[in-house]
Amino acid sequence: MVSRVIPVDDFDLVIFGATGDLAHRKILPGLFRRFVAGQIPETSRIVGAARTQMDDGQFRDEAAKAICEFAKVKKNDPRLAQFLELLGYTPIDVKGEGGWKELKSRMRDGAVHAFYFSVAPSLFGDIAERLSGHGIADDNSRIVVEKPFGRDLASAKALNATLAQHFHESQIYRIDHYLGKETVQNLMAVRFANVLFEPLWNAQYVDHVQITVAETVGVGGRGSYYDKSGAIRDMVQNHMMQLLCLIAMEPPYHFDPDAVRDEKLKVIRALEPVLPEDIVRGQYQASGDQPGYLEDAENPDSRTESYVAMKVRISNWRWQGTPFYLRTGKKLRARTSEIAITFKEPPHSIFDDTGAPKANELVIRLQPNEGMNLKVMIKEPGPGGMRLVQVPLDMSFADALGAEGSDMPDAYERLIMDVIRGNQTLFMRGDEVEAAWAWTDPIIEAWEDSKRAPEPYDPGSSGPEEALRLMHRDNRRWREIRS
């Protein structure tokens, strides 16, 4: 199988916060990989903008170090030298007037203009105002904004209103890197390009759905930030909500940005309020020489959750009666992200009890080892009667696609190229963000009112015991967390 690389149009991309961690780890290495793949025209320009005083040469040196480290390329690679020629740098005062005239002078007529806000959300308004006021951005420009998109409904509305003062909704790209993952997009292909699954994708045939995002790391190094958000703000309200929407949404009339996002919005608005007994919050504790959450957050009185599990219901014809179980946490047994759709068992078995068929299960792995796995029942080979055994039909992208599968574009690479193309399909719309917060806010408020501390759990475990009971009372079990 040969993948096609379709070049994008000539562009000028400005990265605000270009000296920060995200630019070093993801944005610059991702752009380099797209350049090597032949997707970025050699005439394009990438301009770093930040408070740090440096010139073009110094920024190129800094970018080269980041690309060598995170894109695994050697310093003397001639392709790196070619890519660095695209880079420039302008020191900027986002709250003042310094640097804006110089930045405008770098913008070329006729090129796509995109501006990546890799900065704190508190600076979005200042940057948007100055881009507009100095005539750097026009009606055809695009801006990319990183999460968090507010910390509640009120702040999300305020942020959307601020951006709307200077940019149309069609120009705003709210980036969620989970939507750039190959497997997430393949979820839509599996559902809507194959007659095999879509007729079964409803409450009549699906017993339940599990969405798991587990991490082995704690919050050390970003404890003060994380302690103000917690697992539900950091993961559930955005990443996991998007995965839920893609699983549960109705087929859009066309693979079109607004058509897809209209259907996702309908799912969010159909979510029922979560009952208190259907939520479990956890907090990893100290173990041996490993610090606990309270030490990592440097807040001995913190009631912020590092783990959350919940049972979610969707009130519509397709999913009435089928529960969705969501869980995410830090310091768990393995690093893994997956969606598991468990189908109902056959209504009648013609086999004896020893050969009773088990439920089919479709597992979509987002990380690591992206791919899909469908568990089906077959006859166990050999003589001795009809003995059934469940086996996986496994498709790892690395195995199925060979070298191409093991070298798939990073999510940021794909999404930035979509920005240049002007394709908003994999980006969140303003009303979508606000609807997600409208559902999440009452959950957070109920926690705060209860003043109940999160359940403790051991590092390297699957989470608190209460989360196991959440499933057991429904006669179901969480899937094992493993890499």
From TrEMBL:
Q: Which terms are listed as keywords in the entry?
A: Carbohydrate metabolism, Glucose metabolism, NADP, Oxidoreductase
Pathway annotation: Carbohydrate degradation; pentose phosphate pathway; D-ribulose 5-phosphate from D-glucose 6-phosphate (oxidative stage): step 1/3
Instruction: State one molecular function term (GO).
Output: NADP binding
The protein's matches in InterPro entries, at most eight in alphabetical order, are given as:
G6P_DH, G6P_DH_AS, G6P_DH_C, G6P_DH_NAD-bd, NAD(P)-bd_dom_sf
The protein's annotated catalytic reaction(s) are:
D-glucose 6-phosphate + NADP(+) = 6-phospho-D-glucono-1,5-lactone + NADPH + H(+)
Pfam families to which the protein is assigned, alphabetical: G6PD_C (PF02781), G6PD_N (PF00479)
Q: Which amino acids does the record list as binding substrate?
A: 177, 181, 215, 234, 330
Residues annotated as the enzyme's active site: 239 (proton acceptor)
Q: Which HAMAP family match?
A: G6PD (MF_00966)
What's the stated role of this polypeptide?
A: Catalyzes the oxidation of glucose 6-phosphate to 6-phosphogluconolactone.
Q: What protein does this entry describe?
A: Glucose-6-phosphate 1-dehydrogenase
- Gene symbol of the encoding locus: zwf
